[in-house]
Design goal:
With 303 residues, the chain is α+β, with helices and mostly antiparallel strands. It has ten helices and eleven strands.
């Protein structure tokens, strides 16, 4: 298949592929490294094409689909479609660039609310964490730290349910289910966003995960600045800010720890539990910081 794909790309695009950097995924060419994506679901491909075109602006580039020599943005295959995308590897800075990141995230949120009609969208998995917590009752009784955290984790999940219920009238943005700061690359001074190819999800889980990433490598000022600039493009205050808090309150630390422990040996278990404790405390600090931002914005409105 690998050689057939290279020949197909050589025939359909205005570039010359040389060899695979990562078989059937990344290729080297006379125009730099390119990512090859395969799509079996045409509607999903169309959705990814649409949001990529919408989110790009004067300070942000997106890994949009390359056009073929015939002017199409995909190549038909027997069992689906192929698209070609730019790839870059240098990370885009976060601190002092919050205005660029924030506007881009706001653009994605706006698109997700304004274009909600996609039949393959998945519902948020946030409330399903409860299932994993119930499964954890069968865990090794020696994992005292996790077991002691379960009552608080369930209390947090109940809070999430209450927030979801309170703001159920708000249209849920349709976004990629997983967003990470690692997707933001730098090219010629621009933020270059490398999107995925997964089914979109209704809700703010992706924004919550990106905010958690951001918090790990910056500070409170930077978190607040990022939220300010998202809010400038897509109004968070009035409900969406609370829905982001709900995603952060959700006890994903327990869920992640459970997954890591499944195949861990004795030596790894201690490291995983230490990481769990650290993530638990870090996430609580992030929730406090977001609440502080919400309160600050509320005071500005009152004035």
């Amino acid at each position: 298949m690998s050689m057939d794909v290279l020949e197909l790309i050589d025939k359909n695009f205005s570039l010359t592929p040389s060899r695979w950097k990562q078989t059937n995924e990344l290729l080297e060419s006379d125009c730099g490294v390119k990512r090859v994506r395969y799509w079996s679901d045409e509607a999903l491909m169309n959705w990814h094409h649409a949001w990529r075109n919408q989110a790009e602006h004067d300070q942000v580039l997106v890994d949009r689909m390359h056009h073929t020599v015939e002017g199409r943005w995909f190549v038909p295959l027997e069992d689906g479609f192929l698209t070609l995308h730019d790839v870059y590897f240098d990370s885009f800075p976060k601190q002092n660039h919050e205005h660029i990141w924030g506007r881009f995230i706001g653009e994605m949120l706006a698109f997700g609310v304004e274009h909600p009609h996609y039949q393959g969208v998945h519902e948020s998995t946030t409330l399903n964490i409860l299932d994993n917590l119930e499964d954890s009752n069968r865990m090794d009784t020696n994992l005292t730290m996790i077991r002691k955290s379960l009552p608080e984790a369930k209390r947090r999940l109940n809070m999430v349910q209450e927030i979801f219920e309170q703001y159920r009238h708000l249209p849920k943005p349709i976004l990629e289910s997983s967003l990470s700061v690692n997707q933001g690359k730098r090219v010629h001074g621009y933020l270059f966003w490398q999107g995925g190819n997964h089914y979109p999800e209704a809700g703010l889980q992706g924004v919550g995960s990106l905010l958690a990433d951001w918090h790990q490598s910056t500070d409170t000022r930077s978190v607040h600045a990022l939220l300010d600039h998202i809010d400038d493009r897509f109004t968070l205050t009035g409900g969406y800010d609370q829905l982001i808090v709900a995603e952060l309150i959700a006890p994903r630390e327990v869920q992640k720890c459970m997954g890591r422990m499944e195949n861990a040996g004795p030596e790894q278990s201690k490291q995983i539990l230490d990481r769990f404790e650290q993530e638990w405390e870090t996430n609580l600090r992030l929730v406090e910081e977001v609440y502080a931002w919400i309160n600050r914005r509320a005071k500005k409105v009152i004035r």
